[in-house]
Amino acid sequence: MAQTRVRVAVETSFRRKMPARLLRGWAERVLLLLGQPASLGLDVAVTDDTRVRELNRLYRGLDEETDVLAFPFQPEAVPAEYYGDTPPDLDMGGFVLPAGEQLLGEIVIAFPYAARQAEKAGHPVRDEVRLLLVHGILHLSGYDHTEPEDERVMWAKTHEILEALGQQT
Questions:
Q1: Domains (ranges, CATH) in the chain?
Q2: Residue closest to 43 by CA, chosen among 76, 21, 22, 70
Q3: How far apart are CA 63 and CA 54, in angstroms?
Q4: Which are the contacts of 127, defined by CB distance < 8 A and separation ≥ 6?
Q5: Distance CA 41, CA 106 (A)
Q6: Distance (Å, whole) CA 113 – CA 70
Q7: DSSP string spanning 22-84?
Q8: Which member of 5, 72, 99, 133 has the greatest number of CB atoms within 10 A?
Q9: Contact call for residues 40 and 103 (beta carbons, < 8 A)
Q10: Residue 78 and residue 72: Cα distance in Å, rounded?
Q11: How far apart are CA 33 and CA 98, in angstroms?
C-alpha cells in the first residue's frame, strides 16, 4: 500500500523538541483514519510566532499571533475567513504538482505559541502540537467550527482521532 506524501519542515531551533519523523507519522495516520487517498500530499511546517503572525496577517487579514494555520489546495476544504480589507489573490490554477500528485494543503504550526498553550493546559508540548496538527488536517478535509453544530462535530472527530493516535512518541 502506498503511503501518503507528507513533507515536514521543522525550523532548526525546534527540531529536538519536535522531530519531523514524529509529525510525519502522526499526519500519515490521521490521513489514513480520515480515509484520504494514499497518493494525497500534505505539507507541514513548524516555525516561530513571528512567521505565523506574518502569514496570518497576509492570508487572513489578522495581524495577531495564532497557533496553527491551514492552507487548502482541495475544493472540499473550507477556506478560512479573511478579515482585512483586500484579500490576497490565492488562485492556485497555475500551481504545478508532479504528475499524479494531489496536495491536500499545508499546515503551519507556531511552536512557541503551542508551547505556551501546552504549559497553560498542563500537558506536554508534543500533545499540543499533535492536537494542532489534527485540527489543521480536519480543516483541510472540510471540517469547520464556525457554527455550534459544526464545532461539536469537529471536536468529536478531533477526540476520536487523538484517541486513535494514543500517546505515540
A1: 5-165 (3.40.390.30)
A2: 70
A3: 7
A4: 118
A5: 9
A6: 16
A7: HHHHHHHHHHHHTT--TTEEEEEEEE-HHHHHHHHHHHHS--S--SEEEEE-STTS-PPPP-S
A8: 133
A9: yes
A10: 8
A11: 25
Q: Which residues contact 134 (CB under 8 A, 6 or more apart)?
A: 26, 30, 158, 161, 162, 165
Rounded CA separation 17/111 (Å): 9
pTM exceeds 0.70 for this model? yes
Closest CA to 135 of 161, 115, 164, 105: 161
CA distance 124 to 80: 28
DSSP state string for 110-163: EHHHHHHHHHHHTS-HHHHHHHHHHHHHHHHTT---SSHHHHHHHHHHHHHHHH
**Sign of dihedral through CA atoms 53, 45, 110, 32?**
positive
Helix, strand or coil, per DSSP, at residue 13: helix
Amino acid at 14: F
